[in-house]
Specification:
Radius of gyration: 22 Å
Number of helices: 15
CATH topology of the largest domain: Rossmann fold
Helix content: 40-55%
Order of helices and strands: HEHEHEHEHEHEHEHEHEHEHEHEHHH
CATH class of the largest domain: Alpha Beta
Shape: elongated
Strand content: 15-25%
Oligomer: single chain
CATH superfamily of the largest domain: Glycogen Phosphorylase B
Strand order of the largest sheet: 2-1-3-4-5-6
Low-confidence stretches: 1-6
Structural class: alpha/beta
Number of strands: 12
């Protein structure tokens, strides 16, 4: 269609999504791309990108973007970065290569090789920037504060879930050891007998290779007599279910042993939930201990249980912490703030090529 050609010819940025498996990288892209599209002509290429995000097919990209003008190729995965390098140095596409890194670990030799050849680097946290060994713009992820917002009445919203108790404490993410699911279950087994008004909800998919792990957790829960008070939702098929769960919960736990950025923390805070988070990902930079949540060591069940007992003992203090969490996100972590930071990187790179955007 003519409109496709117009879009392809005029694009300034390609956002590849070449990973076959859906992950948090896709979630963060889906969140920010519509906001970016308000500032610059951008289209996604690849997998797990739905409407209303602008998209370009491989055929359109190859036909209209080869050597016609300089464009940004904004990679977020190693495969995206490697393909960008091949397109530029083998097939001579005029691509300015940008990579966003959330990883907080020493990178492999192949990743370091690719990073040295990027035109621009973005880190989602100061900690992640420290592992790049190059100058990088620190641009934290943001959230849509209209989509993730507090409910008018959290008690009524919780009651609509049809679960026991007056309050909910939730965990978002796949059910697997590295996400800290077992530490949460063990902590809830300690805490819930002392908090009869509370119910725990584990929100996320269990992939086939971790079904045995989940069954082991269910057995623990059953042996503790808490089957009705620790609930697994399974995979959520509709996106709007996620913000609704945040609105229903009073506390969110982010218990991962390792993490990239960890967007669930910001989504919870934007929804007015204080967060108990481990020292993983960007969470120590997002949560102020004792002000809008608590920080605990990774893989420390007793510390997690103690933090849950503390945060749930005073409903008024809990509410105040949630308000402060929301205010912080509104002030510092809006999705438009993330889009502005990324746009500044694009503008600097394209400006060096004499392209005004």
């Amino acid at each position: 269609m003519a409109s496709h050609r117009f879009i392809a010819d005029e694009l300034s940025v390609i956002a590849p999504s070449l990973g076959i498996r859906y992950s948090g990288i896709n979630a963060s892209m889906i969140a920010v791309l519509p906001e970016q599209a308000k500032r610059i002509r951008i289209a996604a290429l690849g997998f797990h990108i739905g409407d209303p995000i602008p998209q370009i097919s491989v055929w359109q990209f190859c036909r209209h973007c080869w050597r016609s003008r300089w464009r940004v190729w904004h990679a977020r995965r190693n495969i995206d970065m490697l393909v960008g390098l091949i397109l530029r140095y083998v097939f001579r596409f005029r691509l300015l290569l940008v990579f966003t890194s959330a990883a907080q670990r020493r990178h492999s030799w192949i990743t370091r090789f690719c990073l040295r050849r990027m035109d621009g680097l973005i880190a989602t946290s100061a900690a992640a920037a420290g592992y790049l060994n190059r100058d990088a713009a620190v641009v934290p992820h943001g959230v849509n504060i209209d989509v993730f917002s507090p409910p008018a009445n959290r008690t009524a919203t919780w009651n609509d879930r049809g679960l026991p108790g007056k309050y909910g404490i939730g965990v978002f993410g796949r059910v697997r050891p590295q996400k800290g699911t077992e530490e949460v279950v063990d902590a809830m087994i300690q805490v819930l007998p002392h908090r009869p008004d509370w119910t725990a909800v584990i929100i996320g998919e269990t992939t086939p290779e971790f079904r045995t792990f989940q069954q082991r957790l269910r057995t623990k829960i059953g042996d503790a007599g808490l089957t009705e008070r620790i609930h697994f939702t399974g995979f959520l098929t509709r996106f709007d279910e996620i913000p609704n769960w945040y609105r229903a919960l009073s506390v969110v736990v982010c218990p991962s042993r390792t993490e990239g950025f960890g967007l669930s923390c910001l989504e919870a805070m934007a929804s007015g939930c204080p967060v108990i988070a481990t020292h993983a990902g960007a969470w120590p930079e997002l949560v102020c201990d004792g002000v809008d949540g608590h920080l605990v060591p990774c893989a420390d069940t007793n510390a997690l249980a103690a933090a849950v007992l503390k945060i749930t003992e005073d409903p008024l203090r809990l509410c105040q912490m949630g308000q402060r969490a929301r205010e912080k996100v509104v002030r510092q972590y809006r999705i438009c703030t993330e889009a502005d930071g990324i746009y500044a990187v694009y503008r600097g790179l394209l400006g060096k090529r004499g392209i005004d955007i």
